[in-house]
UniProtKB/TrEMBL annotation:
GO terms for biological process: P450-containing electron transport chain. Residues 2-106 form the 2Fe-2S ferredoxin-type domain. Keywords: 2Fe-2S, Iron, Iron-sulfur, Metal-binding. One of its GO terms (cellular component) is cytosol. This is 2Fe-2S iron-sulfur cluster binding domain-containing protein. The keyword Transcription does not apply. Its cofactor is [2Fe-2S] cluster. Belongs to the adrenodoxin/putidaredoxin family. PROSITE patterns: 2FE2S_FER_2, ADX.
Amino acid sequence: MTAITFIEDNGTTTELDVPDGWSLMQAATANGIDGILGECGGSCACATCHCYVDELLMRMLPPPQPGELDMLANVAAERRPNSRLACQLKAGPALAGGTVTLPPNQE
């Protein structure tokens, strides 16, 4: 299990113990985190799991692959240097203690 903190746009903070190997999108939708829609079910075919990762996650995550970069070009909220798709981020020990902030809208 990997402890990840999600911060919703309204300021609600939730720490989840995410099973290793789960995507952060899976964890958010399974636990009712408001702000992650995941309309494509995690197949990197939409941008409704857009999130902003903190410095820890920026250092530990592999860079986005071309498909994720294509989808990030279509996000509804502001795209930032730390924008990622939660469906492409897999929980694991290296990410423990990371924080994901959700944008104000996904559509």
